[in-house]
Specification:
CATH architecture of the largest domain: 3-Layer(bba) Sandwich
Helix content: 25-40%
Low-confidence stretches: none
Radius of gyration: 22 Å
CATH superfamily of the largest domain: FAD/NAD(P)-binding domain
Strand content: 15-25%
Oligomer: single chain
Mean pLDDT: 94
Bound molecules: flavin-adenine dinucleotide
Number of strands: 19
Distance between the termini: 34 Å
Strand order of the largest sheet: 7-6-15-16-17-14-18
Shape: globular
CATH topology of the largest domain: FAD/NAD(P)-binding domain
CATH class of the largest domain: Alpha Beta
Length: 444
């Protein structure tokens, strides 16, 4: 079949890979100058790094399979990483269960309640569907205690859900704790994360080379503008230059708001789900520093003086044989795109973050910043508040020959590259069989 795919993020890439292996001819439309979407890299202080921090875990089986297939497995740099937590004006280790027992930011009773809550979620809570009816902002303070909520859970959820933390159900937290448990059950005593030496650019370039060798046409800088219908069936794509190409099947893998623009005539209950979706934007301040910031990879921050709740340090990733490494830090913040910090200008944001970094890392000084970039994307993750499972659109749309696959369908698991590739597998199954396919994104 002749297949058009709209959007060359990991989902579109994965679908193109599967379809080309099955002998289909694929055209991949991408609005930007390169493939990869949120996983693209940029040049910072003379070295390529991801625009948004990306790490790989042992449980990312679909991604690891893709990395192997693209022949870049030997580029994986596996490192033992640690987490720390800044609260009450001091830093605490926060990696192992023993660290939790010693976590002095909350009292001993609250610590036990924190551990009890995590234990309940990972071992006894049953299905995530039951947890979907419970609001995290009620459940977690009730189980873990008010102080544990204020100091630990609320900042963690704020980092992910920003202004909408109070509307989030417990399903996400359930999935998150299962993921953490899964890493440990696989025999990994400590946290292990991997980075592709040279950034995901290496993987994306390998994928482009693979596409070239397997007849996949990548149309860079060519946003799809319209999906063409004939007798109610999707038959072609018109790009921004007005060029029309006809396809047997079309797979939409771009952020949901693009669909309304491309297909304004799409109406009815199925499309209402898609049109009703809301996205979080991400604002990510990325700094290359002349000095190391922290010996640990992930720092949670719970301090009213600090306008961010987390910082990620790439130093351990970028150090490997022959490379001294680069002190790159990421400070992400998720919010609705209409709200701060998405709307805050770069200069104000960087100045505020630099002042706050000094509170968390006293040895930090703004003169250590060699280069800084503020990255923003309005469609970084979906707002999955309330009973989101009841609002997930299927892959097969009511319009014949049109299929839909993007991160809005990944639930309750958090969106990610590996699950994006899993979704691509489901999408190909639905497209080839022209049948509805049940998706399961429950962490195993
Ligand atoms: C801050 C941050 C950190 C993350 N960290 C991790 C991590 O550590 N590990 C992990 O696995 N995942 C991580 N992720 C998640 C991961 O990046 C995403 O889940 C994944 O990249 C989503 O892929 P996608 O294909 O669904 O969407 P996208 O990457 O958004 O791709 C959509 C593509 O569609 C294109 N497009 C849009 N409109 C059009 C149009 N009209 N025509 C043609 N093309 C169009 C876009 O340019 C884009 O390339 C992170 C994400 C963020 C934001």
């Amino acid at each position: 079949m002749e297949i058009g795919i709209i959007g060359a993020g990991i989902t579109g890439i994965g679908a193109a890979w599967h379809l080309a292996r099955k002998g289909h001819r694929v055209t991949l439309y991408e609005k930007e100058g390169g493939i990869g979407g949120l996983a693209r890299a940029m040049l910072l202080d003379g070295q390529y790094v991801e625009r948004y921090y990306h790490f790989i875990m042992a449980a990312d089986t679909y991604l690891l399979e893709f990395i192997r297939a693209m022949g870049v497995e030997e580029r994986l740099n596996w490192v033992e990483t640690e987490t720390q937590f800044f609260a009450n004006g001091r830093m605490y280790r926060f990696t192992s269960p023993l660290d939790l027992l010693r976590f002095g930011a909350i009292g001993p009773v609250d610590r036990l309640r924190l551990i009890g809550t995590m234990l309940y979620l990972t071992k006894f809570a049953g299905s995530w569907k039951k947890m979907e009816d419970r609001l995290a902002c009620r459940f977690l303070p009730a189980w873990g205690g008010r102080r544990t909520w204020d100091i630990v859970f609320r900042p963690m959820l704020d980092m992910k859900f920003g202004d909408l933390t109070n509307e989030m159900s417990m399903a996400w937290m359930w999935a998150r704790s299962r993921m953490v448990k899964q890493y440990r059950e696989k025999g990994v005593a400590r946290e292990r994360r991997a980075w592709v030496k040279g950034s995901l650019k290496v993987l994306l370039e390998a994928a482009e080379a693979w596409f070239e060798g397997h007849g996949v046409t990548v149309k860079r800088h060519q946003p799809a503008e319209r999906i063409l219908l004939e007798d109610g069936r999707a038959v072609g794509v018109c790009d921004d230059g007005g060029e029309v190409r006809r396809f047997d099947r079309i797979l939409f893998c771009a952020p949901s708001p693009e669909l309304r623009r491309m297909l304004p005539e799409a109406e009815g209950p199925y499309f209402d789900r898609i049109h009703g979706q809301q996205y979080y934007g991400v604002t990510c301040v990325v700094m290359a520093l002349s000095e190391p910031l922290s010996p640990r990879f992930w720092t949670y921050v719970s301090d009213p003086r600090v306008p961010f709740v987390g910082a990620i340090d790439y130093a351990s990733f970028t150090q490997y044989e022959g490379h001294t490494g680069q002190n790159v830090i990421y400070i992400p913040h998720y919010s609705l795109p209409a709200c701060a910090p998405y709307t805050t200008d770069d200069e104000t944001l960087v100045a505020a973050y630099a002042r706050a970094l000094q509170i968390v890392f006293p040895r930090f000084d703004a003169s250590q910043i060699r280069e800084v970039r503020v990255m923003r994307n309005p469609n970084s993750s979906i707002v999955c508040a309330g009973r989101y499972s009841e609002r997930i659109p299927g892959i097969r749309t009511p319009i014949p020959s049109l299929y839909f696959a993007n991160l809005s369908q990944i639930y309750p698991q958090d969106r990610g590259l590996s699950v994006g590739l899993k979704l691509a597998g489901y999408a190909v199954e639905a497209l080839e069989s022209d049948r509805d396919v049940a998706m399961d994104f429950t962490p195993y």
